[in-house]
Amino acid sequence: MSRLPAVSFAPEGVLVRKALDRLERGPCGAHELAADVFGLRGGPREMATRLVAQLLDDVPEVVRGGPDGEVWRLAGRGRATAEQPARGLRDLRFAVVDVETNGGIAGAGGRVVEIAIVDVDRGAVGGCYSTLVDAGVTIPPWITRLTGIRTEMTRGAPSFSQISDRVRERLSGRVFVAHNAGYDWGFLRAEMRRAGAAVPRGPRLCTVHMARRLLPGLERRGLDAVADYYGVEIRDRHRARGDAVATAQILVHMLGEAERRGWTTWPTLRRGLGRPPRRKGRARTAAERRKGPPSESDKG
Length: 300
Known about the structure:
Helix 1 crosses helix 2 and helix 9 packs across helix 10. A hairpin with a 2-residue loop joins strand 7 and strand 8 (124-132). This protein has 300 residues and is of the alpha/beta class. The chain has helices spanning 14-23, 30-38, 45-56, 141-147, 151-154, 160-171, 181-194, 207-214, 223-230, 240-260, 266-273, 286-290, and strands at residues 28-29, 62-65, 71-74, 93-101, 105-106, 109-110, 112-121, 124-132, 175-178, 204-206. The longest helix is centred in the C-terminal third of the chain and has 21 residues, at 240-260. It is built from twelve helices and ten strands. Strands 8-7-4-9-10 form a five-stranded mixed β-sheet, sandwiched between helices. The chain has a three-stranded antiparallel β-sheet with strand order 1-3-2. A two-stranded parallel ribbon has the order 5-6. The protein has two domains: 14-86, Winged helix-like DNA-binding domain superfamily/Winged helix DNA-binding domain (Arc Repressor Mutant, subunit A, Orthogonal Bundle), CATH 1.10.10.10; 90-290, Nucleotidyltransferase, domain 5 (2-Layer Sandwich), CATH 3.30.420.
């Protein structure tokens, strides 16, 4: 049989959600999953195994086991073993990301000029990777006033193509988290594609969306407002490292809030939070996003 080409699936796409919904009913073999998700019935077992692996291998809330590694189940579901213990929500690994940009739109002239990635493991904030990025662009004065980042500061910093492997490594096997995740993810994805690098796969979690569900009485859900609610100090505001560390600390508090509601696994958290609302109308520019209201999804 000819070799099955590598296929990339969107981590929040229809097929991944369909597979997760099926696994919520219990563990499932690769052949059965391929039939339910892809409609592949009666096909070669090798093809079913490869397709399901390409779909789910990098999704942290899913684990595989069985004698041949062809049985899939949700983390925290089914009988735990020494080789594959059941995992709760806090056992998942999170990567909290913040990017600073030149003020443009992702994929249309907008470029990342600074990035930070903070690990959160077992409910504790871990190490942080951060760097300025030389995107070969001029940083406009209003971005410099906001962030303190000047064009000359980025000159000599690594390009995104030079750090893309490290970024992917830091995100691999982790839940991508950001305050207004769609914004940061959009820029990271655009930069990875521009660098010719594979876009990291896995689920994403937005702390703005979490605040909307967990803190319904909070009038504003920008980073400053949520940090103030939890008593988190933001050091070096509007710089990638400072904002990412603060968001990571906020995430730890929010995971505690979720557990108190009984959302102790990724599937229960996903159901409890519901799907993030789709924003209508034209995409807002970074300048509009930074101004705060009227959107609750703003970071500022």
